[in-house]
Amino acid sequence: MRSVIISVGDELLRGEITNSNASYICQQLRKIGLNIQKVITVGDDLTAISELVKAEIKNNDLVLVTGGLGPTADDVTLTAVAAGTNSRLQTSMEQWKHIQTIFQQRQIQLRPENKRQAQYLGQPVPNTNGLALGSWLDNQHSVVIVLPGPPVELQAMIDLEVSPRLKDYFHLQQSLLAQSLHFLGRPESLLMTDLAPVCHDFPQFSVTSYVKPTDITIRVVSKDEHANPQMMDKLCAQIIAKEQPYYLGSGDHFDLATTVVKLLKQRGNKITAAESLTGGMFQSTICSVPGASNVFDGGFVTYAASAKEKLIGVPVDVVDQNGVVSAQTAAAMAEGCRRKMNVEVGLGFTGVAGPDALEGHPAGTVWLGMSRAGHPTQTKQLRLPSNYSRQQIRQLAVQYGLQMVYTALQK
Amino acid sequence: MRSVIISVGDELLRGEITNSNASYICQQLRKIGLNIQKVITVGDDLTAISELVKAEIKNNDLVLVTGGLGPTADDVTLTAVAAGTNSRLQTSMEQWKHIQTIFQQRQIQLRPENKRQAQYLGQPVPNTNGLALGSWLDNQHSVVIVLPGPPVELQAMIDLEVSPRLKDYFHLQQSLLAQSLHFLGRPESLLMTDLAPVCHDFPQFSVTSYVKPTDITIRVVSKDEHANPQMMDKLCAQIIAKEQPYYLGSGDHFDLATTVVKLLKQRGNKITAAESLTGGMFQSTICSVPGASNVFDGGFVTYAASAKEKLIGVPVDVVDQNGVVSAQTAAAMAEGCRRKMNVEVGLGFTGVAGPDALEGHPAGTVWLGMSRAGHPTQTKQLRLPSNYSRQQIRQLAVQYGLQMVYTALQK
After folding, report:
1. Domain MoaB/Mog, which positions (chains A, B) (predicted)?
2. Nearest-CA distance A64 → chain B (Å)
């Protein structure tokens, strides 16, 4: 079968955002064995969209159109698809009521144009994260699907509505096997060199690596739909065994903070932190996990040396004698915050986020400290590339902090 | 003039990487007044690429093809473009010698297929960051440009070679005028309805909106290169005046935290915060700005009610009588942290990040408190959409907190 994505949006053609929706759709539909042959991006232009849809439905079994379903005048996608497919716009009174309720709740004045988000073609596709309905239109020889552009809305609709329906509709029997494995602390090139002999023994699978902001992801995918799931599991197990010290976890939606919160909860432990270069990002990452309140009461951002002393009692001497960017300061921060909050695990983050050097240490120099009830305090130095951005350095410091807790709690 | 980008690569259609090259090209060429009308992504497929090129050169003045210029068998772009344009592959002996030298230096064995990276069509385009030559081909009525896929190579070639040559070739006199204006606190549809009469008076400009995670961006762009910069300024000033209470700032790289840090520094003020639902994200956002240490010593994450009392002295009574999610608690948090850190500005964040409701308040209910030296404490309630994700709600709470400080400091 042949499938095409049509991405609509002037902001895409102005280069203001990258087309992450197209990547997401390609990735997710690939899992049900449906490959996209072409992605076409066009602007919010009624004629351009309708002509494109008209042309593409002739050559494709699936035409998936995204973006341009907002309530404003430049959102013309649905009208354009209606013209291109010769079909009629319909309005869901149920959705219109829902939009009215939402506006009432938020105490915002409703305008007539808001009703446009209750329109659809063919059958409506529910949108749990937003107001604009999606559309599923059987159009003689092809299916045309229209989805809104905001990623949080689109992704949920792909996962909950579109993927399952496409699987049924096109009788997609078997999908490719795919698994994502996440690692931290070993450079990509060394990781792949280590793994070359392992991969060589499993020619039915492709093994590729991607550098992500907070880990290196190894993606294992079967080359066709005849691959054996047990062989896949065996290959993944061998990869994990080979790189055990760096392994974080597996899965497309893997999140290290979620794993750490779960481990803490299982052990009935609570965590706190004193953060300097990360400025609260570690605690914010812990709080991004629903149910974080089970394992986290609160903590400290101790950016200035004075705050380190005042809030968590880091002795001035420790900082004076060793410097702010030191194992001793990181350890004293970890111990100080843990003592103050009276919990089982305390972390200290200190280092140079950049762009400038500090105390003679280049940007990317980070010390982590971990204090645990009944254990000696640990410290760890990171030497992150100094050409990394301030954000990258801070984000990686947080991730290494999570890894430190993860490794300790697993033992 | 009409221009199209053809992006080549199976990895794009598998969704393994996003098409950041297309965004970069759109962004950079827009600066010289050249707009892209369409981006088409196809796989490493000889027939698909050559047919696409053949079709697109008929309707476009510029066809820019990227990716698939590597030395391996699946890199077929140059052969495909040659077929699609009916032109002959040539080999640069100079580049071939260069490739041989590089391989000798790196002590890697040279293969015959490496010679393919010295091939080009029309005229070669130098590649300072890689081995594959680019191509510039005058093809009767259109120009066809072929560039390699690795971003570091492509970006340098666009900036150093392609942009300047296109400017000459198409006699691009003047670039389009463009400005981004950022707003927060008024829904997109109301904003655009408000602005309709203003925009009506400036028909030479297009005014579009899009919803970003932390603001609504209004983009003003001249419709052609004949627009008057003074008219542009006048239009922007009118838009800002109309929506003053919601206006945050302007520019493509605008960042509200940077503005707030600058304002605080100008006034010699320091800031702190006590964060509940945001869990440290506000302070982390302040610390994302280089030089934040001028205005921020540290602060508190007070997730549990016990931490609110213990760390910043929020009276138990206040929480008991009014609830955690209340104006009174937000105010007491703001006052408590400001007193504790002894600084000029203190913020309190409390609310429901979701997914579950809290104390009968739906997710998205947020109270902000702001305590300032010499001013009465202010509070503000947000009613963010309850279908927003936990992250969206927390991120918006931070942004509204920044806006609260920004508005106060501007007066």
Report:
1. 4-168
2. 14
CB contact under 8 A, B287 and A280: yes
Q: Which residues of B touch A159 (CB under 8 A)?
A: none
Burial zone of A254 (CB within 10 Å; 0-12 exposed, 13-18 middle, 19+ buried): middle
Whether the ipTM is more than 0.95: the answer is no
Q: Do A130 and B387 touch (CB under 8 A)?
A: yes
Domain formed by B3-169, architecture: 3-Layer(aba) Sandwich (3.40)
Tell which of A18, A109, A179 to mutate to test the B interface (max B CBs under 10 Å).
Answer: A18
Q: Is the pLDDT of residue B174 over 70?
A: no
Taking a C-beta distance cutoff of 8 angstroms, is the pair B300, B274 a contact? yes
Contact A16 B35 (CB under 8 A): no
Confidence (pLDDT) at B249:
95
CA–CA min distance A242, chain B (Å): 24
CATH code, B256-410:
3.90.950.20
Mean pLDDT per 10-residue section of chain A, whose length is 411 residues: 96 91 94 92 97 96 96 92 96 96 85 92 95 93 95 94 95 81 87 90 88 86 85 96 96 93 97 98 98 97 96 95 97 98 98 92 96 97 85 95 96 80
User: Does the CB of B100 have a partner CB in chain A at under 8 Å?
Assistant: no
Distance, CA of B369 to CA of B348 (rounded, Å) = 5
Nearest to A293 among B219, B304, B394 (CB): B304
- Is B155 touching A (CB cutoff 8 A)? no
**pLDDT tens readout for residues A31-84:** 888 999 999 999 999 999 999 999 999 999 999 999 999 988 889 999 999 999
Per-residue confidence band for B43, with pLDDT thresholds at 50, 70 and 90? very high
Please, what's the largest Cα pairwise distance for chain A?
A: 79
Q: Say how many CB pairs under 8 Å bridge A and B.
A: 254
Domain boundaries along the sequence of chain B = 3-169, 178-250, 256-410
DSSP string, A148-184: -SSHHHHHHHIIIIIHHHHHHHTT---PPPEEEEEE-
- Give the pLDDT confidence score for residue B298 in this predicted structure: 98
**Alpha-carbon distances, residue B255 vs A31, A99, A280, B180 (angstroms):** 38, 31, 19, 12
To the nearest whole Å, the CA of B19 is away from the closest chain A CA by 6
Q: Is B43 within 8 Å of chain A by CB?
A: yes
3.90.1150.200, 3.40.1490.10, 2.60.40.10, 3.30.70.600: CATH of A178-250 = 3.30.70.600
Do residue B209 and residue A72 have CB atoms under 8 angstroms apart?
Answer: yes
- Dist CA B407 CA B248 (whole Å): 9
- A46-59 helix and A77-85 helix, angle to the nearest 10 degrees: 40
Spatial separation of the C-alpha atoms in residues A332 and A314, rounded to whole Å:
6
Q: Scan residues 269-288 of B and list those with Cβ closer than 8 Å to A.
A: 275, 277-284, 286-288
